[in-house]
Design a protein that fits this description.
The complex is a heterodimer of chains A (about 550) and B (about 350).
Chain A lengths: L3 H37 L8 H7 L2 H34 L5 H13 L2 H12 L4 H6 L7 H24 L4 H9 L4 H29 L3 H6 L7 H11 L3 H29 L17 H31 E2 L2 E2 L2 H6 L14 H28 L5 H15 L2 H11 L1 E2 L2 E2 L6 H24 L2 H9 L4 H30 L4 H4 L7 H9 L4 H36 L1
Antiparallel strand pairs in A: 1-2, 3-4
Chain B lengths: L1 E10 L2 E11 L4 E5 L6 H9 L6 E6 L2 E2 L10 E4 L11 H11 L4 H14 L15 H13 L5 E5 L7 H18 L3 E5 L2 H7 L2 E6 L2 E6 L1 H6 L4 H6 L5 E7 L2 E4 L2 E4 L7 E7 L4 E4 L12 E9 L2 E8 L5 E6 L9 E6 L4 E4 L2
The chains are: A mainly alpha (about 550), B alpha+beta (about 350).
């Protein structure tokens, strides 16, 4: 029934998918399978009974229940707080918008351990609110939820706001003219167009909070534990690979189920959208309502994001004898405790180098995958789509540990190679690249490509001439995401980074793990440096974006 | 130049193209006319290579195009809604084709300038395409399609979205332009006025098949079938029994041209071919009595709807001075040159 052209299209798609599939096979599936294998087949015999045994333990059930509940609550809360923000960033022009966009992205790249610590400094014992009003939240689940909002605000802003800023406002105007109220027009025209992006964002937030580790570790104490924290505890502390393997499988299955549901809803709603340059859609706020909205968003950003970061910076300067650079100076030298083999400052160079490599890998693999997935087709392709999201749901701890036990022998003897760290980080970056690029790629009108083809552009040339300029923005956002994720990645890196070349988050965690004010202050100082590195990179990205695009539009 | 042979495209059970044969000669302007869903756009997509054939073949300059990808066919296609590249300015859009063919920068700029002059938008190179009016977009789309000097230019509803005055002006401009350039053109449209004004030859399509093909005047004066007649806007179609040069119909006895098909047929009377007869009782005992049902003023002419005592209504056109009043009773006759016996 189908013509020759379709066959050729499938062949191209399969070709594009080959590299991503190989990448995921070697660097994701194999390590994870190995870990599960060790847990469930300790002596060459499968022990599936262990799954049932483990899952009927009340403590495990408690962990499961709490994991789901807090993930749902965090996602809802994040959307509630961040969607107005996405609107403001997409539709309003105001001074300092670029800086602010970079600022709200900073939390996302901070090591989760650090986010926990920053919140502890604000709402914990002896924290800011405790000092001012005697209010402590570290014993309640609110601290975890707030930290999750802090952490994931940027996900919603970037994913939803990115698309929103490119939606043609005239569509809504058309609805208004047809008799729809402002609210009805938004609900019937803009909202459906945003649904894929909102679902993508919600899914990401849910996955992050579902697998939350560092935040829960710090703020949850013994009272609250998520699956991921439990896997870490079982693997690293109790060396109980059996329970860890079962929990990994549970997490895997849960994430698979969520992804399947998500894929269904998104597929049903995705349509070719009318995209316009974002520069044409943003304007100054008008009227009291819009100014109030802008003000509200700015206040929420200030309270939720700037305050914890501010407290963090303040602590990095607050030495025992008043404010000073003491902690920063200490970073440049080796202390006697043997915590580090190299001065902690070297971690900056390591982190940047790893993150650049990881970004390159993630953009290559994710870009190929997104190109292959642009045209919706076939069960195979859809399965691939879901597969790409799995690294977000599978425990980073498992992946990191799996790397160590699988990639230490030929043909992949990479244990001694520096590339191991970027590979693990890229694994988490790829889903971002795909998720950010796919909605935009799919929204490109097929007939524009046809127009280019008729004018003599080969398929590759048509992609470069038509798709690339339209998705360049998305590509840069994706690269920024991948870079940020790589900088902040902790769960896997902590297992595989070599002692003589730690990354910033790993160094911070090591410092936090040692007692004493000096270590704590140094951790704060190093975190501040990490924050600045992220902020500078993101600002550069913002600039790059406007420079490149201003010529185009 | 272009030869389409037995071209077949199926979408599921439905044949969008059903063994279509079509030839377009060098420098010829062919216009495919048909209602929406008749397969005319599919025809263009097949020639461009955007739609794979399920059967038959497409030859360009004698060479079979099977396996030749879209970008190597060297044809131009102007899309219905233009599909200008939003991220490029006017010059960037027009230079796209030459650039794909590796033209040098200076050559591209020269070509852009030349084409903008040609379509009447000199100096518009740096304008953004989103700031163009509908007519300007249409001109830019045309310039873009012409820029790589395609051996065959295809137009999909070229003037579809424009207002009437602009359309009538542009269609004349287009015809002059194509004549001057010697462009071979295959256009599709659902607007007969556009087709007749533009084309050397008109091809009427129905349900994936060609219903009639011929010079505009030929198609206009001799519609091959009731479908073509009705599509061209002729509603005066009636069942007839043709014998020699006369036909028996519900409208009475109608003269038919010599050599018309005989027997049970459908018969078309063009509105201009209806004549008022002086009401002399001797003339028409056999012909029915007509009542003027409605009267529509059309400028120099008046369209009159006549209702016989028994049978379908008849549309007639009269000069203003001769038009009967509404409700009047009249007798009519038929001019043989405006009567057509239709095929199946």
């Amino acid at each position: 029934m189908r013509g020759r052209g379709d066959l050729k299209g499938s062949a191209t798609r399969l070709g594009l998918m080959a590299l991503p599939v190989a990448f995921f096979g070697v660097f994701f599936a194999w390590p994870v399978v190995s870990i599960v294998d060790r847990g469930l087949r300790p002596d060459g015999v499968w022990r599936f009974g262990r799954i049932g045994e483990t899952l009927s333990r009340p403590d495990v059930l408690d962990v499961l229940g709490f994991t789901v509940w807090q993930a749902l609550a965090s996602t809802g809360l994040t959307l509630l707080v961040a969607l107005p923000g996405a609107y403001v960033f997409a539709r309003f022009d105001f001074p300092g918008k670029g800086v602010l966009r970079a600022v709200v992205t900073v939390p996302f790249v901070l090591p989760t351990v650090l986010v926990g610590t920053a919140f502890l400094a604000v709402v914990g014992r002896g924290g800011l609110t405790d000092e001012l009003w005697g209010l402590r939240l570290d014993t309640s689940v609110w601290a975890i939820l707030l930290a999750h909002v802090f952490f994931n605000y940027a996900v919603v802003i970037r994913t939803v706001g990115g698309l929103w800023s490119q939606l043609d406002p005239r569509q809504e105007e058309a609805a208004r003219v047809l008799g729809a109220s402002r609210w009805t027009a938004w609900r019937t025209v803009t909202l459906p167009a945003l649904v894929p992006a909102v679902s993508a964002a919600a899914l990401m937030v849910f996955l992050f909070t579902f697998t939350s580790f560092g935040v829960v570790q710090i703020l949850g104490g013994d009272a609250y534990s998520t699956l991921e924290a439990e896997i870490y505890r079982q693997t690293a502390r109790l060396l109980d690979l059996r329970t860890a393997a079962v929990l990994t499988l549970v997490q895997f299955a849960a994430v698979g189920a969520i992804l399947a549901v998500h894929a269904r809803t998104v597929r049903r709603r995705e349509t070719a959208l009318r995209l316009v340059p974002p520069e044409t859609t943003a304007r100054r706020p008008r009227g009291i309502g819009q100014w109030a909205l802008l003000a509200g968003v700015l206040v929420s950003v200030a309270l939720l994001i700037l305050l914890p970061l501010g407290v963090l910076v303040e602590r990095s300067f607050a030495g025992p004898h008043g404010y000073g650079l003491g902690y920063y100076r200490a970073l440049g030298s080796l202390d006697e405790s043997g915590t580090f083999l190299v001065p902690p400052l070297e971690a900056i160079g390591n982190s940047l180098r790893y993150a650049v490599a990881a970004t390159a890998i993630a953009v290559l693999i994710g870009g190929l995958a997104a190109a292959a997935l642009t045209r919706r087709a076939g069960r195979l392709v859809r399965g691939f789509d879901a597969l790409l999201m799995l690294p977000l749901g599978v425990s980073a701890v498992t992946v990191g540990f799996g790397f160590l036990i699988t990639l230490d022998e030929p043909p992949f003897d990479l244990r001694a190679s520096w590339i191991l760290v970027p590979l693990a980080q890229a694994l988490v970056g790829v889903p971002f690249v795909v998720r950010t690029m796919l909605p935009v790629l799919r929204a490109v009108d097929e007939r524009l490509r046809e127009a280019a083809a008729v004018l003599g552009a080969s398929p590759w040339r048509a992609w470069r001439e038509v798709d690339l300029p339209l998705v360049r923005r998305a590509l840069l956002i994706a690269a920024g995401f991948a870079f940020a994720v790589s900088l902040g990645e902790f769960g896997a890196t902590v297992f595989i980074a070599r002692p003589d070349s730690p990354t910033l988050p790993v160094a911070v965690a090591r410092l936090l793990g040692r007692p004493g004010e000096l270590n704590y202050g140094q951790a704060m100082a190093l975190s501040t440096i990490l924050m600045v590195v992220c902020a500078v990179s993101l600002l550069l990205l913002e600039r790059l974006r406007t420079e490149r695009t201003s010529g185009e539009f | 130049m272009l030869s389409i042979q037995e071209a077949t495209v199926r979408f599921g059970e439905r044949a969008a193209l059903d063994a279509v044969d079509l030839e377009v000669a060098e420098h010829e302007i062919v216009c495919v006319l048909g209602p929406s869903g008749s397969g005319k756009s599919t025809l263009l997509r097949v020639v461009a290579g955007l739609q794979a054939l399920d059967g038959g073949r497409v030859l360009l300059g004698g060479a079979d195009q099977a396996g030749v990808p879209v970008h190597r066919r060297g044809v131009g296609l102007m899309f219905q809604d233009h599909q200008l590249f939003p991220q490029r300015d006017v010059g960037g859009n027009i230079a796209f084709g030459p650039r794909m063919r590796g033209a040098a920068k200076a050559e591209q700029a020269e070509r852009v300038r030349e084409l903008l002059d040609l379509v009447g938008l000199p100096g518009a190179e740096r304008r953004s395409v989103s700031a163009l009016s509908g007519g300007e977009q249409q001109r830019v789309a045309l310039a873009r399609a012409l820029a790589p000097r395609p051996r065959l230019l295809m137009l999909d509803e070229p003037l579809g979205q424009l207002d009437r005055g602009l359309r009538e002006r542009l269609v004349v401009e287009l015809r002059q332009l194509f004549g001057r350039l010697g462009t071979t053109v295959l256009a599709v449209t659902h607007d007969q006025g556009e087709a007749f004004a533009l084309a050397d030859r008109v091809v009427v399509m129905r349900d994936g098949r060609i219903a009639q093909s011929g010079a505009p005047v030929e198609v206009w004066s001799r519609p091959a079938s009731e479908f073509v007649a009705r599509f061209l806007g002729f509603d005066n179609v009636v069942a007839a029994r043709v014998a020699g040069t006369a036909a028996e119909t519900a409208w009475g006895k109608v003269p038919v041209p010599e050599g018309s098909p005989q027997g049970e047929r459908r018969l078309l009377v063009r509105p201009g071919g209806v004549r008022l007869l002086p009401a002399t009782p001797s003339v028409s005992p056999a012909s029915p009595e007509w009542t003027v049902e409605s009267r529509t003023f059309r400028g120099d002419r008046v369209a009159v709807r006549l209702r016989p005592a028994d049978g379908p209504p008849l549309e007639a056109e009269f000069p203003l001075s001769e038009a009967p009043e509404e409700g009047a009773r009249v007798d009519v006759g038929f001019a043989v040159e405006d009567v057509v016996v239709l095929g199946d």
